[in-house]
Write a structure and sequence with these properties.
Number of strands: 11
Shape: globular
Structural class: alpha/beta
Number of domains: 1
CATH superfamily: NAD(P)-binding Rossmann-like Domain
CATH topology: Rossmann fold
Strand content: 5-15%
Length: 311
């Protein structure tokens, strides 16, 4: 049966629609019959967004008055925007702290009935990782302000991103290298970004009650060596593991706050705490996907496997 938000025709406000995950989430929402209102910063290129079923509203998370028109009359808000990746000039952790607080305040003023927040797995256990902790702080703020919310906490994305990182990833795989973020037998959770987008779109209508934090992951966590073995098996050639946080990254961290955050993140991964409990995910969003499927899709998107795989 169609949801009430689908029936009444009110739009879902998507914040971060021009990003990689935001674009996937927009498609997932449209596949579920949702009308989407996309909050896009002034000056940002929105030409890549679909024309049908998508309304573009200009506004900035760091400009509170600009958020009120975007919030007016929406059935739900999904926030997938981030600043810590510094994808665009001027991006910073201000977006993740101050910007998300501004969104929550605007949602409260508009009495938005549901706020779907993209968080990070185990963010509440990582106070030394700035962009993880920003998620925990925003979750707390949603609770404090009484905004009806659900927070999705995915593991590390196992997918082919857009931009320069895509070429870096592809180059490494072509040389037989798989970038790993844990050493030895320490395992961590991976998930396809398409699965995260699907869950974000589904969370517009469920779960009930509000205020839940939901881990998202694949069927099992992997160590770095297991990830390399999986990639090698799918590509039918030997692959070796290479640690992401090497000496070069640690040296750069002496001068770059952003790089220091990356180093702290890999240190946190090494604690073994970055492992999802997928029981609630399975209950709310259906069968937990296999990590093999995420890896296979990533390699296909990078052109290293055929796009269509026979079962």
């Amino acid at each position: 049966m169609a949801s009430s938000s689908a029936l009444d025709g009110r739009p879902v406000l998507l914040v971060g629609a021009t990003g990689d995950l935001g674009g996937r989430t927009l498609l997932a929402l449209r596949a579920r019959g949702k009308v989407v209102r996309a909050l896009v910063r002034p000056g940002s290129d929105a030409s890549g967004l679909p024309k049908e079923g998508v309304e573009i509203v200009r506004g900035d998370m760091l400009d509170p008055p600009s958020l009120d028109p975007a919030m007016s009359g929406v059935s739900a808000v999904i926030s997938s925007a981030i600043g810590y990746s510094r994808r665009k000039k001027g991006d910073s952790l201000r977006t993740d702290f101050e910007g998300n607080h501004n969104l929550v305040d605007a949602a409260k003023r508009a009495r938005v009935p549901r706020f779907v927040f993209l968080s990070i797995l185990a963010c509440d256990q990582a106070p030394d990782v700035p962009h993880f902790w920003a998620k925990k702080v925003t979750e707390d703020y949603l609770q404090q302000q009484g905004v009806p919310f659900v927070s999705l906490r995915p593991g590390a994305f196992l997918g082919a991103p857009r931009g320069p990182y895509r070429e870096w990833m592809l180059s490494g795989l072509q040389r037989g290298q798989v970038m790993a973020m844990t050493q030895g037998s320490v395992r961590m959770t991976y998930i396809s970004p398409d699965e995260v987008a699907r869950a974000l779109a589904m969370a517009v209508d469920r779960p009930q009650p509000m205020g839940q934090h939901i881990d998202l992951g694949s069927d099992r966590p992997l160590s770095g060596a297991e990830l390399a073995e999986l990639a090698g098996r799918l590509l039918s050639r030997p692959m070796r593991m290479r640690m992401m946080a090497g000496g070069g990254m640690r040296f750069l961290a002496l001068f770059s706050p952003g790089m220091r955050g990356m180093v702290e993140m890999t240190r946190f991964f090494q604690t073994g705490k970055y492992v999802a409990d997928t029981r609630l995910q399975a209950e709310l969003f259906g069968p937990v996907p296999k990590v093999e499927d995420a890896a296979r899709q990533m390699l296909a998107d990078l052109g290293l496997l055929p796009s269509k795989i026979s079962p």
